[in-house]
Amino acid sequence: MSTSFWTRFLGNPRVLLGSIWLVLVVIGALAAPLIAPLDPFAISGRPFVRPLDGFVFGTDSLGRSVWSGLVHGARTTLLIAVIATLAAVAFGGLLGALSGFYAGRVDNLLMRLTEFFQTIPSFIFAILLVAVLSPSTTSVVVAIATVSWPPIARIVRAEVMSLRSREFIQAAITLGERDGVILFRQILPNALSPLIVTGSLLVATAILTESALSFLGLGAPNFMSWGFMIGAGRSFLRDSWWLVAIPGIAILLTVLSINLVGEGLNDALNPRLRTL
Amino acid sequence: MTGSFIEAPVAGATDPVLEIRDLSVALPPWADRPLAVKSLSLTVGRGETLCVVGESGSGKSVMARSILRILPEPQLRIASGQILLDGEDLAQAEARRMRQIRGGQIAMVFQEPMVSLNPLMTVGRQIDEILEVHTDWRKAERRRRVIATFDDVRLPDPKSIVDAYPHELSGGQRQRVMIAMSLVLEPKLIVADEPTTALDVTTEAQVLTLLKDLQTKHGTALMFITHNFGVVAEIADRVAVMRFGELVEYGTVGEVLNRPQHPYTKALIDAVPSLVPRKRPVPAADLPAEPILTVRGLEKTFGRPSVGLPWLTRLLPLMGQGRRAAVKAVNKVDLDIRRGSAVALVGESGSGKSTLARCLIGLEQADAGSALVGGNEIVGMSRSAWRPLRSRVQMVFQDPFASLNPRTRVGDIIARGAILQGQSPDAAMAQAQQLLELVGLEAKAADRYPHEFSGGQRQRIGIARALAVKPDILIADEPVSALDVSVQKQVLDLLDDLRRQFGLTMLFITHDLRVAAHVCEEIVVLKSGAIVERGMTADIFANPQHEYTRTLLSSVPGRNWQLTGRRDQPQTIT
What we know:
The complex is a heterodimer.
Chain A lengths: L1 H9 L2 H18 L1 H4 L30 H37 L1 H16 L2 H12 L3 H28 L2 H8 L4 H12 L1 H24 L10 H8 L8 H28 L1 H4 L2
Helix pairs in contact in A: 1-12, 2-4, 2-12, 4-5, 4-7, 4-10, 5-7, 6-7, 7-10, 10-11, 10-12, 11-12
Chain B lengths: L7 H4 L4 E11 L8 E11 L3 E5 L6 H9 L8 E9 L2 E2 L5 H10 L1 E4 L3 H4 L6 H12 L4 H14 L5 H4 L9 H13 L5 E5 L7 H18 L2 E6 L2 H7 L2 E6 L2 E7 H6 L4 H9 L10 H5 L4 E12 L7 H6 L11 E12 L3 E5 L6 H8 L7 E6 L2 E2 L5 H4 L6 E4 L13 H11 L4 H14 L16 H13 L5 E5 L7 H18 L2 E6 L2 H7 L2 E6 L2 E7 H6 L4 H9 L3 H8 L8
Parallel strand pairs in B: 3-8, 3-9, 6-7, 7-8, 13-18, 13-19, 16-17, 17-18
Antiparallel strand pairs in B: 1-2, 1-4, 4-5, 9-10, 11-12, 11-14, 14-15, 19-20
Helix pairs in contact in B: 5-6, 6-8, 8-9, 9-23, 12-20, 17-18, 17-19, 18-19, 19-20
């Protein structure tokens, strides 16, 4: 079954393109000090050097290397997005699972809580959280995770509810299996596919949120990030387009790739397509 | 008719409306066989009923769909052959011509009436639409015709039902609407694909009578696809038996049912559980007759009026309106089941038989009353208090495809119950392998995943899982209703064997009186949550007291065929 999953997954040209870009970004982020030895915050040349003129992607208003910023920024952006998503999936997944499994009063309580979070405009909520917690890597992660768990909770809840009424779960109950075991060993593995798909798409949203926060100057202060680069370069847009365009394109391509891969995962994991 | 043994006299109807010649339907390359239907030839005469019988995968539905050319092309397509409707070859007809033929000349009735009707349109409008496409009548005229047709299919109060939505009708009424839909243009041929399979037995009997009457009245030819030999005996003029896309037997109903030629037909007919009630098995007499399960005044109500927030409902009276009215699914049921007996809980859908079983195994909490399992009161018992009792009562579920976790190995599925009861994992696994052999599978099946097994095999795994904790009572909830006839019989016999071997007490839930008669010597008849009749199967079959039981019994399709003649066992009553 695993071989057919991979052929189905990578056989899709869009998934292949998206995966290639993502692999490049991840390698770049991991190997940042090797491929971009210059400190992204250090003044390493004249300001406003055009791309390919001594610097691959030129320099910014203070003479910092855009290439270094891009590569080190990938690190920050990816790390924050992935950690925030994992936190959101863990929290939302747990809440959704409890809500779907115990139904009744527990469900009512947890779902009203979820709705409470869903009614607050998410980006403004994120800004507010970072402002209150004072900008730092942790507070950005907390802010992104706090605004992105509700959809996960809803999806997991729906999935758990439908699985709970399936006969194999009923059989587990009649065998005297404990609730925790039923939930984690029987229900969650079967609910994994939609969770993986939503989670992967959530990374894309997290990147956008992180970039937007950094753009507003609310990002992690001592780390270079794509959003920060765009924010810093926006006043020079007409003279030095590359300061905004290069990190902008990086965000665009990365988010697009994650979406393509997420869609591909959905197609490959979808049980109705699997039977063919 | 190449390579078949079919004799000339029975092969063709004298005045054929539909003649299928050498039809082959190709399957996509990844399927298990190249052809869904393989050079098949048959005819349906004017005013005649041809029953096409076969198990799942026999290609009977594909054949029916290819007549109307509603195959999911290009995956399935007609490879060769002719489909002649009054001499016109439908296999070659253009798409535009086919649209005129569908509904106008040939109509189809599907299995599931809820899915076949558009839930957002009134049923009257859905029939009106057909008339709008095929005729140039005015609106009032069309409406008159729709009402007349509804009257024809004996829908109560046709004038108001015209404006009803599908969800407002019962299953039987919906199927009547489907039949009305197929009749409204007076087609030459009606193709009915398992039209009564999803219906209760009493409704099924009514729909079958209706179809037969309408056919006589309008002289329509009927091709009736079914897997149920009882239905065949009830309505067929001629029968075609299909297997793996081929016609294996074809003849008049009397010939096929009473003197089947092909071994497959013989096996299929033998697999139909007999309506002749069984006698009490010998070992049961040795067992003490103490009650192992005692139920007193058990009640379960669904859809109770609002829980909490009554003040809100009072302020906004509309809020309470969406709630369902309370339904008493189980209503003051008293039941005694003696050790070693096999009791069938019989009733139609909605009679509360499944709810009663779920209360007895702790999947539902009863609202009132008492139920003693081996002396332990289970009503009001918490899930954790149930745990030690789990080894006493076990359940076999209905749907073999939903009842096994697709991501767990068969061995682990079976061994889990014993491990929970405190056995070591190794011992439990060894026992699981023994159980697999006991239920007729190989011990090495333990390492495989459920999707590698067929429905019947999965049901055997489900039975092994229930037996792994060595229960005293086995509750089987419609364990064979999702299986093919030939597999049904095997699973029923297995259950019967195991019961004798382990001295099990069995509570067998079924809607099928044949199945009940085959495995159980006692019967309890449920209607709307209450017991209307109980007793020995033989007594009840011979002399039903309650009117509902009588209706149930007389509704079993093909009852006369089975009770007279064919079976060699004498109809003894113990």
